[in-house]
Batch of 3 targets.
Target 1
Amino acid sequence: MNIRRLPHSIVVRLIMLGLGIVLCGTAVRYVALTGFLREDLGTVVAAQQLALATYVARDVDYKISQRRLLLDRLAAALPVDLLGRPARLDAWLAERHELQPLFSYGLFVVDSRGRVLADFPKRPARATINYSDRDYVRAALAGESFIGRAVLGQIAKVPVLPMSAPVKNARGEVHAVLVGVTELAAPGFLDLLQHSRIGETGGFLLVSPRDRLFVAATQPELILRPTPPVGANTLHDRAMAGFRGTGVTLNAQGVEDVSAIVSVPSTGWFVVARLPTAEAFVTVDRTQRYLVRNAGLGVSGFLLLLAVGLYFVFRPLLRAAEHADRMTHGEAPLEPLPVVRNDEVGHLTSAFNRLLRKLTDTQTELARIAHHDSLTGLPNRVLLADRLTQALAQARRKGSRLALLFLDLDGFKPINDTLGHDAGDEALRQVAQRLGGIVRQADTLARIGGDEFIVLICDLDDSAEAAACTVAAKCISAMQAPFPLRGENRALGVSIGVVLSHGDDTPDALLLAADQAMYQAKDAGRGCYVLGRTPPV
């Protein structure tokens, strides 16, 4: 090591700090090290609590959102004419529940007066209950999906969470309410939160500020209990007012906790991860006793042990830092750093490796989003332009031909206008699926905007025109079957412009020629294709 760098070496500084602590005596070491450890461990514990609370909150949010989305889709798909046929409606609910059994205590439908029309699994007691006073029923009858108050089920006799979604007709009028009920302790729902502990005595709380209620908790006696009154827990009062983060607080039982609070966005709830400070800072207590017992250690032995220990501790960190520095300068490829030991340095190296993988995955996902249509998953205009450029170059090189088909849907606007944009999006996905079954794997099917699609067929021989016309005819034929949308069958057609090229055209010229040919097909009566010609270069 360069001697001139010794004064700036972290190893030397730590050795001198250790020597100073020993010489200053037990009292100075006791106060300084205890304060340092409490602050450092407090930060680490708070970060860990926040990470745990974030994980649990995301898990709860995903499970709630998954059930809410399923219920909304079921309500949107429920045929209104089944409301007058209970037996058929029972069968409809049974079929959906068996395919997606997310609601452990079943599904049921109530009419505008709160009476049960059908349910699955069948529970006769439901027919005797009027649900018109339930918060989730009132909200759904007003046209909004709603997550109800967690309650002790009147039939289930266990804590449950009801959700509702309005059942509307084609004009958007609410005719009934679809309700899904899940037991809080059902496997795959909130069982992880209720059965998980942090350390020996810590755990989780799931709180509903709207209802001032503990929805779920590691401690069973707190489930469905009201939250503490204002003033009993300062950090809890701040959380109820909107605070999210970490802090140390004295809970309602008089125990000091390190707590982290994270929101569950889909419900307005929040998760609390808490750990008593007595357990969180147990290392501090053990360290204090150790300092008192070992105050008489010799300075020379301390320096020797410290020097050897720091050498072995920091050697992997120095090597990892050197390797990372080489990667930042482009002298080495981006790759995970080796984890030598499973200590703090190993944890830091692992965290760096996870961050590197996350950045790589993010770059891959951004590249995919930049080149594919978000609705259909097909290549977009950017990726099409790249593949078209390559196809033209290949055609020139090999002396082959290519065909470009410009497809524009006929009758798509009325679907958007009458059934809404969601139905229009579904129609576009079905169109993409049908067209995808026609083109070869080596060819390209792209969506370039709105209801316009492009089919690029490469590596054609002298029969290119016949092959292109055959594909165009198959595309038109694929559109002839009606499209099931929101319980209705709608017709869609397609007008196609076809152009051929030997590779001596520009991408823009090909697209323009195909677009013009497509408009000729529309002028010719729609539902047909027209073979266009590219302008001379």
Target 2
Amino acid sequence: MILTHAKRAVSKATVAVQSAAVLYRAGLADRPDDGIRSILAVHKVGPFAAVFSVGAHRYPNAVAIVDELGELTYGQIERRSNALARAWSQRGIGAGTVVAALCRDHRGLVTTMAATGKLGARLLLLNTGFAKPQLTDVARRECVSLLVYDEEFTGLLDAVDANVDRCLAWVDTQPPAGTDSLEAIVAETDGAPVPAPERPGGFILLTSGTTGTPKGAPREKTSPLASAQLLDRVPLRRNQPMHMAAPMFHGTGLSQVLLSFALGNKVVLCRRFDPEEALRAVAEHRCEALVVVPTMLQRIIDLGPEVLGKYDTSSLRIIFAAGSAIPRDVVTRTMDVFGDVLYNLYGSTEVAVATVATPDDLRIDPSTAGKPPVGCQVRLYDNNGVEVTEQGVVGRIFVGSGLSFTGYTDGRNKDIIDGLLSTGDVGHFDENGLLFVDGRDDDMIVSGGENVYPLEVENLLVDREDVLEAAVIGVPDEEFGQRLKAFVVLADGAEAEADDIKAYVKANLARYKVPRDVEFLDELPRNATGKLLRTKLSQ
């Protein structure tokens, strides 16, 4: 037992040294005093408030964000968040309270993120695609005290308890008389430093909600060394302007914008994604990093050579994509257009980071999820909890990292084995140590006694030039228990028959993996971060 504890201590120390080296290489810890200042700031006010407190000290006049209203420096955001924190504290917001943000990506959301950290409050990041029932359920369950929202979502607010305080973060027109506006509060309140809270603020991220009401996954105080997990295999560095196309309410956008701010970089924000506008932003600001979810990347690539050729995107060094699986053809087409700059993160709201596929990994196999970065462990287990170590054998994926959550806000948790958390996916490792995700554990279809994971069939179908998207589900069958049904979105101008699709699968996969039914759709149902809503296909 003593020897086991000693080995664990040595392992943790080794990871800490390796993580510190990654942070030094990225430019986050090049001076001891700056490193100490950052650690103390995170300890006092949490990561988001800390990056602006440190940034205002190190580079107060550097541009932090660009949105539709113009530029804001690190010093300006620090003063804005001080003012907002001071005003909200007088309204009873502080440690133990929950502030919910129903906002698109803009200065109001960034200021809110920093201000809640300085108050020690928890910030609940709401999906901008919510309908009234979801907003009602989540706001009630998480005991929201203050709702910060964009004007366009005003129509949803009558679903929230009238006792919940409200604050308008973005105004498209003229705010109604008596409306509490974030910008007015900031303009009217002193922006001098505020006292540190009793404990730092934190975040509550929401799961995708593809099978029901999203669950809350809190993110409390984490070690600054955990940032190394996102910098180890993705070369984000100082002086690299970033275009944040992904929504910041999702872990993908949140993690990357936080790292960019920690590096003192400029972040270009957009409230609504448009593929051509994303290219224009990259070209105009000479962005070296572009953060997207896979559906956004596909829409950019689908613009075609004529539109893509209008914009100089040669500055791009990183296209960071996460949130859902990237189709193989989108991976190859992206690298054909932009070069070897694509980095694909595999993880979840609960475990955060699991693996990252680099351009070199994706050249080996476009469908790989890559390898674990420093500080992350990924293991496979069978249904009996026994570790799967054989190459090519499918097992349940479990992950351990300093960014993993400690349980949902409703008290439930994911399965845990040997201290590692289940992702809910199944996968296998190949001879190169690369992870491949074969599908969701609960998506497995048993047809005639054979196990089928839809992702394998879907990946095969999207390899066809005439198929843009594909989804496969199990539907009830009297003879086989379940049979496979494929939903196919054809590329523009393409024509195909159901028999063509079936014959193609039969020629490439086992007989029992051939869909019995094929339905053609104009588009697949997805949520705001691009995750496929299989439940809508089965309705």
Target 3
Amino acid sequence: MENFPRQSWTYMELIKRRAAEFGDRVFCSFADGDELTFAEFETATNALASGLADLGVKKADRVLGMMYNSKAFLLTMIAVQKLGAIFVPVNTELKGAFLEHQVRNIEPRVIVSGDELRGAFDTISIDGLDIETTVSVEGGGVPLKGTKGALFQDLLACKARPSDIVTPSAYDIAMIMFTSGTTGPSKGVMMPHAHCLLFGFGSGRALSMTPADKMFICMPFFHAMGLLLQMTSCLFYGSSAHVVRRFSATTWLEEIRSSESTLTYGLGVIPEFIFRQPPTPHDQDHKLRLMLAVPIGDDWGRPFEERFGLRLVQAFGMTECNIPAYGKLEDPIMAGCAGHIENDFFEVKVVDSENDEEVSTGEVGEIVVRPKHPGCFMAGYFRMPERTVEAWRSLWFHTGDAGRFDDQGRLFYIDRIKDCIRRRGENISAFEVEQVINGHPEVAESCVIGVRDEDAGGEEEVKACIVAGGNAPEYSSILDWCVERMPRYAVPRYLEYVSELDKTPTGKLRKQDLRDAGITDNTWDRESIDYVVPR
């Protein structure tokens, strides 16, 4: 953006500029018929900020929001930040110990909740926490025990007081966003304003966004992709957005078509679920030109582009380290190719995960990242200094992801380090094995893990947990399919049919429970029938 130096990158400044430039033009439309204009984004958040100030919210306080994708979510986030406070969006599926951990870690002054989600807080204890107010978005929620109640619409109707608004810097914490927590308690990532805006700046630059574009957002706002890469890029480039509550494979194309969207994003299994919907004569009857999809499989990437008449772009990043690599439109579609490093903002290396020594081009190691500018990276994990230090070993942020560089400087994502199965001297990508198995005509989806074979001295073996698409095929049929399509060392030894696979709301497989279960009574071993994988 012209005349918008990085040192001024705050949501307050960005929204003020866009309101002045675009006024009453619609910024966001929502599936429920609600709309938010650029001008309203500025004026309504000023009023809501004063309403929250009346509740006692002040600089550095945390305000926790549990809301579905909505106008209220966006207004709350910015109003909180206009007070110099910190917005904390949480996963709408949380309850029990998972929710209690985040609430106790954050210790919010105020909780803003959609009425449908209010009951989740009855599954936790808030004893000893100084939570003052529960704000009901729809107006029918009962406040948490020991807190005052307030109505969102009443706060929104307050008269804006300029004296309530603070002027944060690009380096101040705008929000705390929790990671998935698949390897332990979820960690709250402290995100400066510049870090948040860089997500939007970088993704919009990679997709050549303009004010003429419309972004279709089906990713949840509590996740970096929906809120930062998509919504924030629209703010940065003056584009508009159409927002739905959640992704649906069966309605995705119709929603794209009816909203006249030109851009969208998909994470995890979402693009593959779309591709596996039955083809229709209307598959190219839309205005979509680009989709950022992570990751892309060899078996469906190029066919997806041809079927829907659009281009796919890949990337690599995390909530903590932003998006240091994007694909280029001139690059061919290659599974795992995250693209080229954004060298004006980041340094990236691939290192040996045991000693942090840089590995050679083409060799697989751990991806490590560090920023070139202050404020454009996380500021650490909230109240978890030991986890912050652990992640920043050797002055590099360790992503926990395995990857490699090719001879053209492109970064390839292989898998999570713990998802790289080590079998008889070979590194096996669980993702690549899953992609092959998912291509079987009678398989709906799969999850591949490494399990210990104690009879082989603790060596890992490959196990595939499979959801059948209809009648479960013979196990040997799955093996025959794999033998023709993958190296012999990657062919699973163990197979098990399951009714469903647990996922995060953003479509990532939750694998830890399957790893913990290991080999069960329902696990089938190919050696039980002396199945031989040919050389």
